[in-house]
Amino acid sequence: MPTKVVFLLLPKLHLLDLAGPAQAFSTANDLGHGYDLYYVAEADEVVTAQGIPVKAQRDWPELSPADLIVVPGWRSPRFTPQVPIAALTKQRLRSHHAAGGQVASVCSGADALGAAGLLDGRSYTTHHDLTDTLSTRYPKGRLVRDVLYVVDDRVITSAGIASGIDLALHLIAVDRGAEAAARVAREMVVYARRNGDEPQESAMLRHRGHVSDLAHRVQDVIDSRYADQLRLAELARGVGVSERTLTRVFTAATGLTPLRYQQILRLERAEHLIGHGATIEAAARAVGFEDARMLRRLRSRGVDLGPPLLGA
After folding, report:
1. 8 A C-beta contact, residue 208 and residue 194
2. CA distance 133 to 104
3. What domains are there in the chain, each with its CATH number?
4. CA-to-CA distance for 241 and 238, rounded, in angstroms?
5. What digits encode the pLDDT tens for the residues 66-84?
6. Which residue, 3, 142, 146, 310, has fewest beta-carbon neighbours within 10 Å?
7. pLDDT of residue 311
8. Which residues make Cβ contacts (< 8 Å) with residue 290, sequence separation at least 6?
């Protein structure tokens, strides 16, 4: 029997929180993997945060333990002190889980699971902007920060927005196999299927919160050629400044030297490859190291993949 995937639509839901995983399961169904999609709400029509109305059904399909409920996120709970979910809907979530079914959320959808009591005693995650809010609301749960998704006792929570696609691909891989998930990812032109413990923000995004045009242009080059042997003189010529000026401006803007920024990009990509089964030697070659010694050294040092280190 096809697996039923029921999307619970709440007012002001985010389109991509819904469309990303819906597309993944729909594509899996098109490829013959047996998923039936349903969209339920407490009203016949739900207006999204982006202003587009979405039609829904009020009647829930009959669910079995093999089926899945997904709660997409809605406009930040910081602006909605009360979770927009009725007592009967909370009970449906609890009952499905108690019967052995899976319940998942994207972004602030975790707030609905928390309101239903499903986060108590379990690990969960959410969008990085909402972690403080939800950890305060649901202190009986164990909030895991800066990961893409968390699975705990058939309660699956994801970070938000595009991570809903990673969540769906993970569930497809578990239910239908890694090959099925890879085919879906290829059809959706997803660059890479990410593991749940990967950071919510890549290094390419974390170190872009500055206003230096020069540093951004240098980062553009390093981002596209991080596996190459880039010389400081070459980077400086490319942006029309001296090596000294480039280093000074880049470090002031990002908190990193150009070399350290390149190393962080390489290390982050290598960790991704190792997490998907590559050997350290193969990962080192793929990201541009001459051998695995430097990669091992960086990993053993615990090189920070988080916020920039000033003066690095």
Report:
1. no
2. 19
3. 3-187 (3.40.50.880), 203-301 (1.10.10.60)
4. 8
5. 999 999 999 865 656 778 8
6. 310
7. 27
8. none
